[in-house]
Design a protein that fits this description.
Layout lengths: L4 E9 L4 H14 L4 E8 L7 E9 L14 E4 L19 E5 L13 E5 L1 H7 L8 H11 L5 H11 L5 H14 L1 E2 L1
Parallel strand pairs: 1-4, 4-5, 5-6
Antiparallel strand pairs: 1-3, 2-3, 6-7
Helix pairs in contact: 1-3, 1-4, 2-3, 2-5, 3-5, 4-5
Length: about 180
């Protein structure tokens, strides 16, 4: 962390909702009393399945730097297959946190000097009543467990509001289940 600022870089695929997940966390952080919140997506060709990266900065102070994150405190990975394509931990600070949607646990990533949080978000989201592949709200639960700076109740409230009338309860349940089943190593 840079002083009062936490930098979170999200990696997903087009259509998985990485941008929406970062937006939900940003909204909840703002409502929880963090006046400095900046989110910036970056992606190549807009197509389903293409890699997507989102930068999210959360601070107790106003943020003027809107550049993409080069040295994150936390990296969130919505699809563990991305680990074979992109060095998602590039620039991750020593002692940083890697949050991964995977059924394989810590074995999916063999790097050192970081903490790893894993959960089978895909399976847990299905248990909550979402279609296979809808993992963006579930991964918020894993992030909340790994980095408890925004109250989980605020995150669930923001999820319910974002998906009001569109499976809001199921999306909030995906986050709750994932929070309960996230392992930190």
């Amino acid at each position: 962390m840079k002083g009062d600022t936490v930098e979170i870089r999200w990696h997903g695929r087009g259509g998985q909702g990485a941008i929406t997940a970062a937006k939900i966390v940003a909204q909840a952080a703002f409502e929880a009393g963090f006046p400095g919140v900046v989110m910036a997506p970056s992606f190549g060709t807009e197509r389903r399945g293409a890699p997507v990266e989102v930068s999210l900065k959360i601070s107790k102070r106003k943020i003027n730097d809107v550049c993409p994150i080069k040295h994150p405190d936390v990296v969130v990975v919505l699809d563990d297959s991305i680990l074979r394509e992109i060095d998602v931990t590039a620039g991750l600070k020593p002692g940083g946190i890697l949050v991964i949607n995977t059924p394989k646990g810590r074995a999916v990533y063999d790097g050192n000097h970081i903490r790893v949080a894993t959960a089978d978000v895909t399976h847990l989201a299905e248990q909550a009543g979402l279609k296979r592949g809808i993992v963006n709200t579930g991964i918020i639960g894993a992030l909340a467990k790994a980095l408890p700076i925004v109250p989980f109740a605020k995150l669930r409230e923001a999820i319910t509001m974002e998906f009001n009338g569109k499976k809001g309860a199921e999306n909030a349940e995906a986050a709750r289940l994932t929070y309960a089943h996230t392992t930190m190593e």
